[in-house]
# Entry
Amino acid sequence: MSRLELDVAEWRRVSPKYVWVDLVGVLIFGVIVVAATSLPGIFSGNTYLFTIPAALAIIFIITLALTPRRVRAIGYQLRSDDLLFRKGLMFQRFVSVPYGRMQLVDINRGPLDRALGLSELKFVTAAAATGVVIPGLPEGDAETLRDELVALAESRRAGL
Amino acid sequence: MTEAGPPSEALPPETEPAKGAGAGRLADGEWHRLHPATPLLRGGFALVAILGVILVNLRDLWIEIIIGGPDDGPPDPFRWVLEHDYALPVLGAIALGLILFILGFYASWRMHTFRITDELVEVRSGILFRTNRRGRLDRIQGINIVRPFLARLVGAAKLEINVAGQDANVQLAYLGSAAADELRREILALASGTRAEASGDRAPSRSGFVEQRVSELLAPELDPDAAAPESVVRMHPGRLVGSILLNETTVFVLLALAGMVTAVMVTGEVFLVLGFIPAIIGVGSFYASRFTRSLRYSIADTPDGIRVGFGLLSTSNETLPPGRVYAIQVRQQLLWRPAGWWQIVINRASTSSARGAAGQANTTILPVGSLDDVRKVLELVLADPALIELVERGLVSKGGDDGFVNSPRRAALVRWFSWRRNGYALTPGSVLLRRGAIWRELVVVPLARTQSITLHQGPLSRRLRLAALSIQTVTGPVSARLGAIDAERAVGLFGEVADAAVRSATNDTSHRWRESRPGTATP
# Structure
């Protein structure tokens, strides 16, 4: 029982500050979900109905506790011909995208990201399922990475 | 008619007249107009039908006026108009409306022009709101010629040039039937990168309008080129009926029917049957349309790709240039197994507005066929004999040592029936993923067309030392995902596929498919 590990060079990790963004996001979502699922119990007065929000709360607490590790598990690296991306702790996922397949690169910044000076970079190909989103990049890094990716894609241009 | 501006102009002047769609070569970089019957086909028939309805409604009134009769009918607008002496103004308004309509149709036909240059195809249309659409020829994903029944009667056809993306097609509706075939040949020749002048000297035999119409109606769908490509697969009506009846829908229908009979027997109310009539009509028309669409199915190899034809009354005939197939799936549902029938579907980057054989998008390139037919179709799509042999072996194999790397025994926990044949194979140009023992499927992904490769592992798989690999291609019916592979092998495969995909994409020249083979010019 071992994790998947690729035999590759050092991963570039995302900023540790991203932990806070992720924590706040999970926390807000968790509070809303737990509150919403508690409503039937509150209104009916049936205490058994509180088992659902309680179970959900436990799941969210575990998720919160694992957040630092989950953020540390996000990594990417620019190989000679493709972008390699990894994420996930329980559900591990490795993606390789050849640079030539790039259709566009997005940089998104949410309110929390902005407060901490972070950006999220999205690499879009012709396949909707590719889904390479690198969160928690320091602003400057994200823009350099974007320019780097665009230049690499330009030099390895391929058809669709 | 004066000459059009040079083809390289950024935004051409909107004023210069265009040539009619019938005159000579169409792909000469000048502006042309569509078939003169276009307004009629695009809505004119509706106008005629509305007029007809009005006239029929007036019939009673005519009879009454001429012969004279009891004036006790129900109040209706026509009578009211007559009784109040508004006949003249109303007739005038109708006439004005008609004239405006006809003028509008005529103007929209005049303003709808297209041109095909060496680099792109461009369409201008619209009277008040002008649209100008350009497509690059080397990005063509397929060219479809659709002939709705009414259009076939007047010898017109719709040419649709598909480029990648939603709603990104350039439509030329309508063109002359022969002109459409000719134009497709020329566009493909231009797109292929040969740069050779497409030969336009094949003059169509002029033999009377009716005769020509009849011969076009009866001619097989695959005939546009001088060397007419022969369909490699013949669709037997019996097999087609069988394949349409033998599927999950039929099982559902039979269950519903049994339910209905039970309901009638239990309640004794025969009237319940009435409630099911709409459903029965719906199912019947579903079967009928599938049947008529697939009946004249044909598939053939042309120098510019595969040509797939469908349809009995309304026909569609599409050319897929090489390298426009993103993933191929050969599959067999449970009920087809005794008959040994298979189906082939593909992923492609464009979505044609014309529906395919079973009413779905044009992604089914073999609606039903024996293993023999599957091989013939694969020969057109894949071209590599070793690969085709591997696919054929893989389709029917029960597993074991058959050229595929199959799942380990411990995968039986998550792949109860199929773990023996759940596997992959890697060839120089493509990846083969095989899954399913009950619903058998085999997916071939050309490596040059992959968009990205993903390796997954969840908690259960981790415990079993398994992993899943998926290869992302453009959206389509084929999903290239294989679960329950040995984890170590999956990691190795991930690396190999990623490298091979980059290599294949670099060497791929199929967007200009003939440039790599300068010897083969246009026939």
Q: What stands out?
A: The interface with chain A takes residues 139, 141, 164, 323, 349, 449-459, 462-463, 465, 467, 470, 472-475, 487, 490-491, 494-495, 498-499, 501-502, 505-506, 508, 510-511 of chain B (CB under 8 Å). The first strand of chain B starts at residue 32 and ends at 33. Chain B has 13 helices and 20 strands.
